[in-house]
Amino acid sequence: MDAAGVSTAFLSCTEPGVWFGDDFAKERQEAIALSRDMNDYGARMVSDYKGRFGLFAVLPLPDVDASLREIEYAFDTLKADGVGLLTSYGTIWLGDPALHPVFDELNRRNAVVYTHPTDATCCHALLPNTSGATVEWQTDTSRAIFNVINDNGGSTSAATRYANIRFIWSHGGGTLIGLMNRFLGYGNLSPPALARPPAANSKLYHLRRFYYDTAQTTDFLQLGALKGLVGAAQIVFGADYPYSTIANHVEQLQDAGLSATELAGIDRGNAVRILPKYR
Asked: For position 154, what pLDDT does the model report?
């Protein structure tokens, strides 16, 4: 952090989360205990290094009742800044109705929900000689985003239901840019359509209110396309540590075709809009 000029970092649990197989029932109690242990550890880091860390608490999903208890503890006792979730849990993505009680409570608390991808149960090692990080993690982020913004045949989308939640999607939204035509349709991607304010609670409306981090997405092609879709003000700094270094991301952003104002927003300004105590 010091070498890269990072003053404050937010702690979160990356993949594989707090359970490690494909059968949550076998690991339920261990996952619940590990969530509490990790959150307590993160809170001690925040306390021991004043101003250097914030905490996105881990939840033992898909256990709804245990996650509700952990939300209460994390926010009311540990004073967490938000939660850090995976994009999927077994065969459940974040917009699934089974998770409504958890997200309703996060919505009530106006929570920040940060996400990191994993390879879902469906899609372990589908391609030879690759890891989940090569294709599946990026794709699972897009699955989760679509699951949250999709209206599921006419019902209210999860994104609309959870209007108070500030979502942050890692890796620039994964494969979001490549799937835009599938998500929105050509007619909504023309220059005139993108120049107009999107209809309230439309898919594009929600995509433009979400935030996206720069973790391994600092090249001018990906970042430029993301900026064109959602605006530079919705992009926040992320470095995917320990999978990649913080310093590399800081350096690469200098060549991403961003203005000084846009870089300042990504460095800090955009994040403190949703985390104002760090101003």
From this structure: 62
| Structural tokens at position 119 | 């390879």
For the record, the structure tokens of 221 come out as 């092609």
What DSSP designation does 157 have? P
The SS3 assignment for 94 reads coil
H-helix segments, 52-166: 64-72, 100-108, 136-149, 158-161
Distance separating alpha carbons of residues 145 and 172, to the nearest angstrom: 11
What is residue 123's DSSP assignment?
G
Quote the CA–CA distance of 82 and 113 in Å, as a whole number: 6
The 10 Å CB-count burial string (b at 16+, else e) for 233-264 is bbbbbbbbeeeeebeebbebbeebebeeebbe
pLDDT band at 144; cut points 50, 70, 90 = very high
- Cα 104 to Cα 79: distance, rounded to the nearest angstrom: 19
The residue with tokens 């929900």 is: 113
| CATH number, span 87-278 | 3.20.20.140
Q: How far apart are CA 125 and CA 63, in angstroms?
A: 26
Residue 170 is classified by DSSP as S
Range 202-207 contact pairs with CB under 8 angstroms and sequence separation of 24 or more: 203/149, 203/150, 203/157, 206/148, 206/149, 206/157, 206/159, 206/160, 207/145, 207/149, 207/176, 207/183
Q: What is the pTM of this model?
A: 0.94
